[in-house]
Amino acid sequence: MKYISLKNISPIDGRYKNFTKNLRDIFSEYGFIKYRLIVEICWLKYLSKIPEIKELHPFNDKINNFLNMIIDQFSVKDAYEIKKIEKWTNHDLKAIIFFLNKKLSLIKNTDNMIEFIHFGCTSEDINNIAYALMLKNAKKKYILRYWEKLIFYMDSMSIKYSKSVILSRTHGQSATPSTMGKEISNFSYRLKRQFNQFKKIKILGKFNGAVGNYNALLIAYPYLNWEKINKNFVHSFNISWNPYTTQIEPHDYLSEFFSCIFRFNTILIDFNRDMWGYISLNYFTQKIKFNETGSSTMPHKVNPIYFENSEGNLGISNALIQHISFKLPISRWQRDLSDSTVLRNLGSIISYSIISYRFILLGIKRIKINKKYIHHDLKKNYEILLEPLQIIMRKMGIKNSYEKIKNLFRGKKINSKIIKKFIDELNISNSEKKKLYNLTPLNYIGKSSDLAKKISFYKY
Predict the structure, then answer these.
(1) Domains in the chain and their CATH numbers?
(2) Residue 258, CB half-sphere, CA atoms under 13 Å: how many?
(3) What is the mean pLDDT of residues 351-360?
């Protein structure tokens, strides 16, 4: 029967499939099977290099090439074969072992070699390394690359809009001006902090048997330093070794890994909402695509759909992260299976995040600063100059300056003439009066412009 994508339950593989297709080889069932197969084969090859294990002879080039070929030529057809085996084993990893047994039986005189497949291992020795490799690849190939791209675009916007003065809003009310560039640089700096933290998070792996004590390996070869051997094996995948575990790697690093993504995503939710608000205020306009429809009944609408879509997908990703960050580090005694089901959803978390990153980038490319409207808004709100007025009055020793300003002007509409008249009557020096006369909502911006321009100097 032909596969119909419209029947997908999840939008990850349906509506947004083009956004997430590159993640399929990592986080799909096919991907998980292949990563576990890689770990099994690597362990078998690793054992063959230990001289003290005389029952397993060192592999020649023919055997090594054959084992490499199993990995390199692993196909969806092979994955389906493993899934067929799983139907009667009712154990997914045992199905991979049987598949590998069958493959090796094609080579002559491999009976003894077959007995060393999965030697001294528990399923979680294989699974935890597989998940570690999946996350390591996703981190390097996708997550950090998207984060870099988002930060780059925000840095670029910060510099581009460094002189674009806007009316700030604290508590939703008019407040001291800033620049659009400075407001975006606030987000960029926050994202860079998370980027740097995320890079430093170590991905851990364990390979120490049924309850973390090398029991089976030591009974077979008690004279070998299995702690050192297995540490080196874990390091061979360029991941860090966890020496103290039960049957499972305790997943603390997974909580750290995804908690950092959670914080990065939360900052982006904040960014999305601000962009949505600025579009609503008409501070940004959106480029119009002729064939697009904003509403089924209101023809004039150009909605901020990319920022809205991103916010929604970030929320789903973060909701899943909240659960796994709490759930995964907790396991009953030496092992329970509740983590296994949760771990199979790591790809969903990352997929929803990637979808949201793509939408933010689309949204950024669509907006354009509306200077004319912003200037109009600033000129309507001269009350924001009461802050510099009262601070100069306090500097010049006028008592109760703040209260005088508050009693005179709070709740009243103010314009440039009212401000000028008030300055005229102040008992301050002419140089200070001149400073105040020259102030407008458009130039009372402090260091906001300079701060926006400097954002690219803060590295990540």
Answers:
(1) 5-119 (1.10.275.10), 124-375 (1.20.200.10), 382-440 (1.10.40.30)
(2) 30
(3) 98
